[in-house]
Amino acid sequence: APGIHNVSFHRMQYRNPRETGIHMSPIHTWQIFKSYEDKDLPCPIAVVVGHHPMFYVSANMNPPIDVSEYDLAGALMNEPLRLVASETWGNDFLVPADAEIIIEGEILPKQREPEAPFGEWTRYYGPQRSNPVVKIRAITKRHDAIYLDNFIGHRDMDCLTLGWECTVFNRVREAVPTLIDVCLPYSGCCGYHAYISIKKTVPGQPINAALAALTWGFLKLVVIVDEDIDVFDEEAVWWAVATRVQAGQQVQIVKGIRGSILDPSIGETVEHDALIIDATKPFDKPFACPINIPEEYLTRVKLEDYVNLKVL
Fold first, then answer.
1. Which band of pLDDT confidence, cut at 50, 70 and 90, is reported for residue 268?
2. Phi, psi dihedrals of residue 208, rounded to the nearest 5°
3. What residues contact residue 285 under an 8 Å CB cut-off, 6+ apart?
């Protein structure tokens, strides 16, 4: 749509100075490309190499397709995203003015070539597939431009998943306003598992929260916990599962939802199954209290009265 710019991450394979391959998950960029391909038209794209960190967080947020990630980037940066006319399409396609490097190109319609294998955020190599082709039209850069790369599949990419957490957070909050927090842990590749804490006020909220999270697309496991559990502490999350869950009552499997084609367990389809664990305490009956030492007693005890601090 006019004025709406979609920004997202995509793998591109260098072939020669004027051509790359591109891998797209079946989300917004793929949908936009298909709208061009159905008309036998090339789809214009601009690759932004190097910008403000919040620009890349916005690229991973996956808002509704009619929301411009340029607007999200400006909101996260707390200032308008400066734009400039592209070399190829002029004011019809605006690109970030403060990028280190801009690579302008077109995804060609009805043309596919082998692409990959490449390392992916799953920490596996993504398999070779027949993927679309990009023809490069122009490259612009700053003087002494800094080339920004992403060491995919390693912990230094964790910051990028903040956008995914924001997306899940927003979707769950629409279904359960008493949402507390969302964590996509590294143990789940920062995209396949979600730990979600809520303040349960009515029965059924944990399942509503989980189903809302699953609309994001990649999740295979959703664990819902109470507000007393820190979702960023995996030991605490799984303690809640160990002590507050009966599998026959609080575990559900949702079959046949859209998953990630990069998941090595998924096979040739894009569908997968998701596991929901409701690890919240019962709403309508008493439940055991966790042990704790009252704060007044802790403040009364002085460690130096019992231990030589020089030994520590």
1. confident
2. -60, -45
3. none
Q: What is the pTM of this model?
A: 0.87
Residue 295 makes CB contacts below 8 A (sequence gap 6+) with none
d(CA 266, CA 118): 17
Going from N- to C-terminal start, the domains of the chain cover: 11-141, 155-279
Distance CA 157, CA 191 (A): 12
Q: Can the peptide bond before residue 117 be classed as cis, meaning omega within 30 degrees of 0? A: yes
Angle between helices 205-214 and 161-175 (to 10 degrees): 140
User: What is the CATH architecture assignment of 155-279?
Assistant: 3-Layer(aba) Sandwich (3.40)
pLDDT digits (tens, 9 = 90+) for 91-150: 999 999 999 999 999 999 999 999 999 888 888 998 888 999 999 999 999 999 999 888
Work out the end-to-end distance of the chain between its first and last CA atoms, rounded to an integer number of angstroms: 64
CA–CA distance, 231 with 282 (Å, rounded to integer):
19
